Amino acid sequence: MAAVKRALLLSTGERYFALVSNFVTVAVVSRILTPAEIGVSVIGMAFVGIAMSAREFASANFLIQRQHLTRADVRGAFTVMLLFTSIITIALASSAPLLAGAYGDERLTPYLRVIAAAFFLELVAAPIITLLRRDMAFGKIAAINTSGAVAAAAVTISLAMLGFSYMSFAWAWVASAVVTGLLAVGLSRQFWIFRPSLVGWRGMVAFGGYNGATSLLYKTYEALPYLLLGRILSLDAAALYSRGLMICQLPDKVILGGAISVILPAFSAEARQGRSLKQPYLNALGLITALQWPALLVLAALAYPIVDLLLGDQWHGVVPIVQIVAIASLFSFSFELNYPVLVSIGAVHDIFRRALIVCPVSVVIITAAAFFGLRAVAFSLLLVIPFQAFVSLTFVRRHMVIGWLEIWSAVWRSAVVAAITISGPLAVVIYIGSGFEISLVKALSAAALAAAGWLLGLWLTGHALLTEFCEGLPISGAAGWWRQGS
């Protein structure tokens, strides 16, 4: 328990620093570059996201979940990762002109080639950080990732101001990869990791086969809206959709923070000791929804002032996207837990089967929606996300013998808290009478009412999260799901 709490403290601090750094960068750069310029980066990153998923065929998570780990396992894993990464890097760099031609924009060629170099350089830090995660050495991980975030932010903003346009994002990734790689090697000094060896490669490939196929399916699904919008509509549309999703991901990033990187190692450690993950999973659902659901509803109500504050007035087209996606995201409450819990209990095959079900259906729905415009793609998520949630929970329920009523019992208080929380902001919007386009000052008043309503909701429902807050923030609340399930 103490190890989990300390890990959460360190990881939460690092994640929040990276979050603040990222959004300062976005806020500054969004006022320097146009949506069309950022659209080049969005399309490029969509292709790179698919390429990165292919690297999961040699997934570093193999090292985390393995019961007994030897040096031969680590060296074999690095060698397999090196081979896969080299092939992917060469393929991405060589296909850059072809991909740029498909979009009629030659700016994609240099962007993809620089990103390919950064992609390869990341290989240096990857196995070291994975071993540190397995050992829950989150102090060193925080130092490495924080340094990388600072480098990325500084280079992105500096180059954007100097006129490097969309290439500022690419060169920033290179800078971040170099900094994290050097620091990881310097802190660990485990140079033996980089000695090629094929001993134990079969185990990693067997694990990575299903893991990589799953990642490829999901990353293709995630990249598809950007690629379709950029091809059918414009790069501007892809940029608007990207920024809309980014803002809607704020609640998850703020709420879960460092917990995301701790969940898999912690679940895996419990599973290795033969303990049940059912109660920790249900407790986590209750705590997450008490934070996520109210935040998403408030985000939908205050989308206009939030977009204006974060991105500037040239991005007002993002507002309806944020509102639609925020409502759809209410159904994603279990997403951050499902993957680590299934990996921890050795159900990698089911993760792949789940992807085979949800990804093709989701792709068909989004592809059809893309021909009707940007908002249609956003509305399609009102079908896609609930469908994915139902399938994912079905697989988790089967392995941990959880009933639907047990899930409802874990989250119903959160639903009441969310309803009470949003009542204040909605009252402000109705009172003003000008729709959701309210000023920042009025938005602050609405946010204050939301905070008061949230605390009132926790008290009225006797929510477990209130106990966690009383015991001490932020780590007690983050770790409570673990303690209650022990």
Quick take:
This protein has helices at residues 2-29, 35-54, 61-65, 71-102, 108-121, 126-134, 138-161, 167-188, 201-232, 235-248, 250-256, 259-272, 278-301, 303-310, 319-328, 335-344, 348-370, 374-400, 404-432, 440-461, 464-471, 475-484.
Primary descriptors:
486 residues, 0% strand, membrane, globular, transmembrane, 2 domains, disordered C terminus, mainly alpha
Please tell me about this protein's structure.
By secondary structure, the protein is mainly α. It folds into two domains: 217 residues, no CATH class; 229 residues, no CATH class. Helix content is 81%, strand content 0%. The chain has 22 helices and no strands. α1 packs parallel to α7, α10 packs across α15 and α11 crosses α13. The longest helix is centred in the N-terminal third of the chain and has 32 residues. It starts with a helix and ends with a helix. The C terminus is likely disordered. It is a multi-pass membrane protein. It is found in: Cell membrane.
What is the CA-atom radius of gyration, in angstroms? 22 Å
- Helical content class: over 70%
Terminal residue distance: 9 Å
Secondary structure tally: strands: 0
Oligomeric state: single chain
- Could you list the spans in which at least 5 consecutive residues all have pLDDT below 50? 473-486
Could you state the order of secondary-structure elements as H and E? HHHHHHHHHHHHHHHHHHHHHH
What would you call the structural class? mainly alpha
* Outline: globular
Kindly estimate the percentage of residues that lie in beta strands according to DSSP.
under 5%
Tally of domains: 2
* Tally of individual helices: 22
Mean pLDDT: 85
Transmembrane segments: 16-34, 40-64, 76-99, 111-132, 144-164, 170-187, 199-218, 281-306, 318-339, 351-372, 378-398, 410-432, 444-466
GO cellular component, one term: plasma membrane
Protein name: Oligosaccharide flippase family protein
Main location: membrane
